[in-house]
Every structure is written in C-alpha cells, then in structure tokens.
Amino acid sequence: MLPVVAFPFEDFYIDTHHMTHQLEPREQQILFYTGLLAAALGIGGIRAILCPMGAYNLQGYNQHQLLSFFNWFYWLVNLNSTIVFLGIAYIQQSVAKNLGFLIPFTSVLLALIAIHMMRNKLTYKPKKGGSLLTTLGVFLNSFKMCCLHYRHLSGDVVSWLDRAKENNGGRYSETHVENVKVLAKLFPLYGLQLLYRACITQIPSGYYIQTMNSNLHLNDLLLPIGAMNVISILPVLLLAPLMECVTTCYLSMEKTPVAPAKIITLGHVCATLSVLVAGLSELQRKTYPLVEQTLSGKVLQVSSMPCFQLAPQYILLGLAEALVTPACSLISFQLTPSHIRGISLHFLTLSYGGGCFLGAFIVQLVYFLSGGNFYPSMLHDGNLERFFFLLATLMAINTLVFWSVSYRYIDLSVRGKALTLSPLTEKLRHYKAFLRFYDTVDRSYTNTSFESIL
Predict the structure, then answer these.
(1) Are residues 307 and 161 in the same domain?
(2) Count of CB atoms situated within 10 Å of the CB of 371
(3) Phi, psi angles (nearest 5°) of residue 291
(4) 211 and 290 share a domain?
(5) Which of 281, 271, 276 lies closest to 308 in space, CA to CA?
(6) How many whole angstroms separate alpha carbon 416 and alpha carbon 183?
(7) pLDDT tens, 394-446?
(8) What is the predicted pLDDT for the residue at 125?
(9) Is position 419 within any domain?
C-alpha cells in the first residue's frame, strides 16, 4: 500500500496523452493507514514466531554462550538497521522519495521466498503444556478460584496462583502452575522496561524532531535525518565485540563476569543521562539564530546549530540499548523453565511494545496539559526541553526502583529445568527411593540369612 500511495500519479503518462491520475486525500489516507496496520501486524507476527524459535535453538547452553548469542543477534539486527538508515534514508531524501517505499516491499518479498524455501528446517513442535493459552488459563483460573474462595470456600495457600492447582479445586496440574509462578516473578522486570522503552522511542520521535530543526548541512552536503540514528547504533556495533572479549577474559581468569541485572541498571542510568542531555541540548539549540533549510521540497526555519552537537544523547541511548536488551533476554531465558521460555521472551517483547504506547501516551498527555505549547509548529517557540526533563525524572525513579528489586535476578545459577518438576513429583520420587532402599535392605537380609543356613 505504501508504494501505491507514494506513486507519482501527477506525472503518469498513457500513450501519447498526458493523463493525470490523482488520488483523493481521503483515499490516500485509507491506503496509507491500511499499509501501516498491515506492516505492524506483520512485524508483530514475525516477533511472535522468532521468540519461541530462539528458545528451541538455545536449549542446553550455559550463561556465557547465551549472552554471547544475544549480543551477536542484536549486533546483526543493528547492522541491518545501519544499512537501512544510510541507504534507504539517503535515497528517499536525496534521490527519489517514492523509491524509498519500494525497496522495503522488494526486500520483504525476497525474504518471504527465502523463508518458504527453508520452511522444512524452521518447523518446531512445542512441548506439551508450554502454550500461551495454558499460561493465560492459569492466571484466569486462579483469579476465578480466588473469587470463589472469598465467597464460598475456605483455606489458605502460599500464592494466589496456587488456586489453579487441581488439588486446590483448580483445572491445571501442579507442574503448569509452578511454571507460571516462576514466570510471574519476572513481571517486575518486564514492567520496569516500559519507561526505558519510552526513552528508546525518543530516537524516532523527540530526537528526530530536534535533528530536523537543526542544521543538517555538512559543507555542501545535506545529511539525511536518519544519519543521526546511525550514531545511536554505533555503540551497539562496537560494544558487542568488546563485551564478548571482556567476558572471555573474565572466564579465562576464572573470575565471575558482571551480573546481567547490574548491566541493566547501568543501561538505565545511560538512558536517564541521554534524555537529560537532550533537554540541555534543546536549551542550547534555541540560543542559535534561525536559518532556512529545505527538506523534501519544504522550506523550514531551523536552528543554525550543527546537528552533530546532538550526538552525545544518541550515543548514550545507543549505549543503553547495547547493555539492556541482551541482558534482559538472558534473564528472561535463563530464569524460566524450558517449557515456557518462548512465552517468557514473548512477554519481554510485549513490554517493548507497551513501552512505545507508554511513550505515545506521555506525549499526548503533556501536549494536552500544555495546550500544545510543548510541540508547536515552530519548535523554536516551544518547550520540548521540559518534556525531556520530565522523562529524565521518571526514568531516574524507574532506575532506582529496578536497582532495589534487581537482587531477585542476580543469581542465574538456578536454572528453570529443575522447576518443571512439581513438589508432588519430587515427593513421589523420594517415596520410590525409600521403597527401593528398604527393598534392597530386605533382600540383602534375606540373602545373608539364607547363606548362614547353608
């Protein structure tokens, strides 16, 4: 839909006659938002499939190998983003803006062909009891049984999720409920990533507006706005190999590497500093005189401050992303039982999407409360720096809260495999072991007596 909307209908020729094919604005909006919705559904579907696939491929790896995998995985993702921002952004802004929409369409079409050719090697059968419906069913059944408990039943349980167990009147086995209880312990981790993701979304929103209203000229070359996004990706591309070397050196010296929870805390601190620096840069940007700058055929009044002076906030946010994302994936994978590791990564991805919605909600709330004063059509007259300072304050509080609960995720030596066995199963195993022991004692006593008689 996006190439159709961007097609230059006003320059379309048929035979020898010049025919102008113009889409009405309403039709353009319908096609445009249909294309965006389809793209969003496609991206969500791809992520929903990749999460369990990663969980199936990584069974049996130790902590260092898992962290190495996630580091290099996100390194490749950001390498692709670098090519996109440098290549497609330059073509769309400087060469042919309509061609910029056609390139992603062609690349996705080629990807579909490649996936179809490799479909036999990408098919996995999930383990029994590890479906998302089972996990959500445990939560719903526990809530239902809690309501019944307060009305009709009596008796106490350790956790409200225990109400879903069959021996407490619920519908699910003890193993399923214990797995979900482990997953529930990660919800604070997921919830505290929402505000961090709201900060990350400033790259295509708040930081983008700042860059667009700054001087993009480098000598005689007009830089694409997406070039600043590459600055935020560079820390990821540089830090992933560096972290791999440091971790390998630590292991070779038989030292314990830094805990992933501490790495996440450090990343949150970097995100806080990034938004704070953005607010200070906005104050400085408004002190420069205004100049005219042409972007996509439109003449804008922008600040004469070079856009490269905004680089520190991009670098800090890229550094935060390099630290937080692989560590969060490692904790989500390592601390959950093998049956629900794919679901754990699903919830982590869901928190990333929720952070985008939270960022949009904060922007709309601030816009409504300020009466449009924070984001006017002329940014030089606005107060964007106040929004950045507000976000930095919220992120600082979020960082302190995560630091206070990070002790729960320090020890990753307790893997999720042992938690797939319920306490009843453990008792049954001990009972069988005692039976074997007494049976062996009884047999040895019988054999000794029989030998003495002979």
Answers:
(1) no
(2) 8
(3) -135, 165
(4) yes
(5) 281
(6) 10
(7) 999 999 999 999 988 887 765 444 444 445 555 555 555 555 544 544 544 44
(8) 64
(9) yes
- The residues, any chain, with a CB within 8 Å of residue 254's CB and separated by 6 or more, are none
pLDDT at 100: 72
pLDDT given at position 271: 96
Q: Residue 295: CB partners within 8 Å, gap ≥ 6?
A: 93, 212, 216, 225
Domains identified in the chain, total number: 3
The answer on 103 and 121 residing in a single domain is yes
Q: What is the pLDDT of residue 12?
A: 46
How high is the pLDDT of residue 266?
A: 95
Distance CA 7, CA 5 (A): 6
Q: Do residues 273 and 356 share a domain?
A: yes
Across the chain, which has 454 residues, the per-10-residue mean pLDDT values are 68 51 76 87 75 66 82 86 76 68 83 86 64 82 75 63 78 82 90 94 88 85 78 87 84 81 94 96 91 80 89 93 90 84 84 90 86 75 88 96 90 53 51 50 47 50
Fill in the DSSP letter of residue 257.
P
- CA–CA dist 303, 292 (Å, integer): 9
Listed in sequence order, the residues at least 6 apart from 61 whose beta carbon sits closer than 8 Å to its beta carbon are: 69
Tell whether 266 and 278 lie within a shared domain.
yes
| Whether residues 222 and 346 fall in one domain | yes
SS3 content of the chain, % helix, strand, coil (to 5): 75, 5, 20
Contact between 260 and 67 (Cβ < 8 Å): yes
User: Are 147 and 247 contained in the same domain?
Assistant: no
In a domain, 447, yes or no: no
Read off the DSSP letter of residue 278.
Answer: H
Q: What is the pTM of this model?
A: 0.79
C-alpha 133/C-alpha 142 separation (Å) is: 14
Query: Is the Cβ–Cβ distance between 238 and 246 less than 8 Å?
Result: no
∠410-413-419 over CA atoms, to 5°?
A: 105
Q: Tell me which residue range forms the domain holding 134.
A: 128-172
Question: Could you tell me the two tokens for 365?
Answer: 């709330």
Residue 315 belongs to a domain: yes
Give domain status of residue 350, yes or no.
yes
Please give the Cα distance from 204 to 356 (Å, whole number).
Answer: 11
Instruction: List the one residue out of 56, 86, 50 whose CA is nearest residue 352.
Output: 50
Which residues are registered as beta bridge partners of 14? 17
Torsion angle, CA of 294/296/302/304, rounded to 10 degrees?
A: -60
Question: In this structure, are 135 and 76 located in the same domain?
Answer: no
Instruction: Check residue 298 and report its DSSP letter.
Output: E
The end-to-end CA distance of the chain, in Å, is 94
Q: What is the CATH number of the domain that holds 357?
A: 1.20.1250.20
